[in-house]
């Protein structure tokens, strides 16, 4: 028992234990909420698992991975910015602009499959990076807070797409673009078949590759170290001879590029066209994903899986049981809440740990 | 020190009791279920997936849902549930339909053209499920109708009810200035707008009114209530006294603005859309700012085709257009804000449409020709 508690409270293991605890507490409080409002939590959670394909339905599991794909990338975008001292609320706008350009390339060019698709994806990454360049520049040169500028850039993206889609790539209705050519799609036959018709696509591999690359850049390269140093203490970094302005702009652009990639995998994989009047919610969910993943790339992937699983399963939970759909966002919010009070949980664990390592309180 | 330890213990006890309670409540709820379902064991599960906006949008979603609820309350042979999908993409809709089908829903009602491709895919995957597609027809994305024997596609002649609303507006305005606020520029909303324009024009010619639509715009969404209010305020400030909205929840903003002004004694009105929005426009004095409503009987469509299915007369594979003649569109029966004279004149116009003396324009080109 004591060993067990010591394991849970040790400093080393907390990176894993705190998010895990946050999730468990979130589900527990969610169960309490259901219980008090007269629903059966066991039945509901079983339906949630079943709906997300974790009880064996391959198509539904594919949908979980599909939902995870976009969230991994937006989460990575926000997490990367966080690690370099920036708060990127603009992932939604960067994703939307990236997605628009990807669809534009996908609609207008005629190229063979792999080339066309890669070009569209690349264009999206570039656009996302450019969309984040301006907030980065304003932050670096004029100390204008990126929270304000990225939110504004979200709305500029929203209304730009609103204008650009009906003007340049109008579909049958003015509210959406024409579908991309089949040569630009990220969906591949063998994956669709493997997952029994789910739209899960090679965007998933892009997302996983991005996780590894970002981890490598941040943890193993001098460049990544400099970016983090600037975020940690700009003055000190400057004193140490680092180019602070350049690094802020680059951090923002990398974050934007990741969000742009999210746009590509969403609009070329999840859907096959772009609709106007929608700011993708995945951009904002990315903040929660980053928070829960403790801004670690692998943590982000795990958190995105959790959110993807809840996204894929929540409607089935609602349709198979009497539990209202609103409960899933409540559980989500509770999990994020517990992740956000990370420090508090950490201090609790430390206190408990200290008591036990001192040898008292074991009666 | 001990205190904290006991509190941790307490929490643990609570957790265990919760789990235990969860298990026991499972039993009791399953008992309850069996009790509830046994008398109406033949009840058919009818599901609905919402379009953009919420179930209480006071127009499209709500209309559909009310049709289903009405059927349930009258016949007590169905069990109902709606799902609000997590997004508005094809994939979101297909997944939401799948969730309903996998939970045993046999009839699925979906309002809005956005469902066209999703229902096309779902209908071929789930041949045993019946789909009622309101305001759309099944196709693969190329707008060539694909016939499915388990789908009925229902359209409306929105332009006809909007035509009558236009006549009503022209006859009722004091300032001679009218406004129109659409949601997104999609065919049903456009038809509302075209019919409205034609109606105003017709009234000016036939009844000598001098009404003019001075503001005609699309807000761009169906859910931005605040923007609807801002737009309405701008129009009313200009002297517009009647605004026709075909904009879902954006229209709620229009109503809010009109109600605020009406409370202060200003004479401004709103023409509702899709359902009779008289109640929506009520102010504290008991009066309403709703002049009338250009209705589209979505509820009737949902009701009728559920009924048709259960009676074995389902018109599967057909495209049906409901018009004034079938009572599928029109103005409400009671319009307390319209004068006797106006009501009489509207009845005349309605008769002429039914007798085909007037052809209400249903496209941009027809409207241009009508206006000449």
Can you characterise this structure?
The complex is a heterodimer of chains A (363) and B (372). Chain A has helices at residues 2-9, 14-36, 41-51, 58-83, 91-108, 113-142, 146-168, 189-194, 203-220, 222-232, 234-239, 244-270, 282-292, 297-320, 327-340, 342-358. By secondary structure, chain A is mainly alpha-helical. In chain A, helix 10 packs across helix 12. Chain A is globular. The relative contact order of chain A is 0.21. The mean pLDDT of chain A is 89. Chain B is α/β, with parallel strands linked by helices. Chain B folds into 2 domains: 44-156, Rossmann fold; 158-295 and 339-371, Rossmann fold, CATH 3.40.50.2300. Chain B has helices at residues 2-37, 60-75, 90-102, 116-125, 158-172, 187-207, 225-238, 250-263, 298-310, 340-354, 364-371; strands at 44-49, 78-83, 107-111, 130-134, 151-156, 177-182, 212-218, 242-246, 269-274, 290-296, 319-322, 329-330. Chain B has 11 helices and 12 strands. Chain B has a 6-stranded parallel beta sheet, with helices on both faces. In chain B, helix 8 links the parallel strand 8 and strand 9. Chain A binds chain B through residues 28, 31-32, 35, 40-43, 51, 63, 66, 162, 172-175, 179, 197, 199, 270-272, 275-278, 281, 311-312, 314-316, 318-320, 325, 351-352, 355, 360-361, and chain B through 1-2, 4-5, 8, 15, 18, 21-23, 25-26, 29, 47, 81, 83-91, 95-96, 99-100, 102-103, 105, 113, 125, 141, 143, 184-187, 220-221.
């Amino acid at each position: 028992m004591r060993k067990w508690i010591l394991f849970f409270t040790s400093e080393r293991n907390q990176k894993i234990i705190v998010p895990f605890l946050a999730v468990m507490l979130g589900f527990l409080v969610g169960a309490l909420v259901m219980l008090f409002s007269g629903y059966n939590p066991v039945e509901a959670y079983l339906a949630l698992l079943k709906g997300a394909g974790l009880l064996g339905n391959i198509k539904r599991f594919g949908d979980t991975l599909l939902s995870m794909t976009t969230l991994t990338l937006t989460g990575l975008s926000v997490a990367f910015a966080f690690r370099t001292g920036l708060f990127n609320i603009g992932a939604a706008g960067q994703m939307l602009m990236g997605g628009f350009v990807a669809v534009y390339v996908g609609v207008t060019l005629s190229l063979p499959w792999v080339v066309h698709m890669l070009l569209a994806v690349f264009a999206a990454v570039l656009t996302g990076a450019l969309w984040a360049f301006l907030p980065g520049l304003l932050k670096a040169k004029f100390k204008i807070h990126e929270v304000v500028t990225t939110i504004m850039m979200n709305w500029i993206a929203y209304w730009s797409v609103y204008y650009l889609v009906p003007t340049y790539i109008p579909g049958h209705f003015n509210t959406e673009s024409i579908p991309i050519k089949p040569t630009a799609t990220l969906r591949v036959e063998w994956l669709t078949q493997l997952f029994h018709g789910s739209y899960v696509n090679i965007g998933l591999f892009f997302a996983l590759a991005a996780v590894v690359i970002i981890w490598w850049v941040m943890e193993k390269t001098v460049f990544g170290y400099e970016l983090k140093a600037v975020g940690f203490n700009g003055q000190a970094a400057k004193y140490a001879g680092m180019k602070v302005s350049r690094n802020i702009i680059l951090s923002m652009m990398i974050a934007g590029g990741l969000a742009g990639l999210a746009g590509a995998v969403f609009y070329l994989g999840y859907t096959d066209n772009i609709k106007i009047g929608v700011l993708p919610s995945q951009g904002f969910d990315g903040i929660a994903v980053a928070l829960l993943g403790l801004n670690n790339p692998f943590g982000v992937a795990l958190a995105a899986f959790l959110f993807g699983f809840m996204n894929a399963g929540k409607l089935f939970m609602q349709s198979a049981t009497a539990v209202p759909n609103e409960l899933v966002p409540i559980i989500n919010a509770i999990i994020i809440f517990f992740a956000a009070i990370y420090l508090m949980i950490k201090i609790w664990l430390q206190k408990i740990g200290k008591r036990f390592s001192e040898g008292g309180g074991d009666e | 020190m001990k205190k904290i330890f006991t509190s941790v213990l307490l929490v643990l006890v609570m957790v265990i009791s919760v789990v235990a309670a969860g298990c026991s409540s499972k039993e009791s709820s399953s008992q309850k279920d069996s009790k509830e379902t046994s008398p109406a064991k033949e009840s058919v599960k009818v599901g609905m997936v919402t379009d953009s906006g919420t179930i209480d949008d006071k127009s499209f979603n709500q209309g559909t849902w009310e049709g289903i609820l009405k059927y349930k309350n009258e016949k007590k042979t169905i069990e109902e549930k709606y799902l609000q999908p997590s997004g508005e993409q094809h994939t979101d809709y297909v997944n939401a339909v799948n969730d309903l089908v996998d939970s045993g829903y046999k009839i699925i009602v979906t309002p809005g053209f956005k469902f066209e491709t999703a229902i096309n895919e779902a209908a071929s995957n789930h041949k045993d499920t019946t789909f009622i597609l309101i305001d759309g027809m099944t196709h693969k994305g190329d707008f060539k109708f694909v016939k499915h024997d388990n789908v009925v596609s229902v359209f409306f002649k929105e332009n006809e009810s909007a035509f009558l609303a236009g006549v009503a507006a022209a006859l009722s305005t004091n300032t001679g200035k009218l406004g129109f606020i659409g949601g997104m520029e999609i065919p049903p909303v456009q038809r509302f707008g075209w019919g409205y324009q034609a109606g105003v024009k017709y009234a000016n010619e036939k009844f000598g009114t001098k009404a003019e639509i001075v503001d005609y715009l699309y807000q761009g969404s169906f859910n931005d209530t605040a923007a609807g209010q801002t737009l309405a305020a701008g129009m009313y400030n200009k002297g517009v006294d009647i605004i026709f909205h075909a904009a879902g929840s954006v229209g709620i903003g229009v109503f809010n603005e009109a109600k605020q002004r009406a409370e202060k004694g200003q004479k401004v009105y709103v023409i509702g859309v899709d359902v009779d929005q008289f109640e929506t426009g009520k102010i504290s004095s008991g009066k309403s700012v709703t002049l009338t409503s250009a209705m589209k009987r979505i509820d009737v469509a949902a009701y009728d085709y559920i009924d048709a299915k259960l009676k074995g007369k389902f018109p599967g594979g057909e495209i049906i257009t409901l018009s004034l003649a079938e009572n599928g569109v029109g103005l409400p029966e009671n319009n307390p804000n319209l004068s006797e004279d106006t009501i009489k004149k509207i009845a005349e116009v309605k008769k002429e449409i039914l007798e085909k003396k007037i052809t209400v324009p249903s496209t941009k080109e027809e409207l241009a020709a009508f206006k000449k």
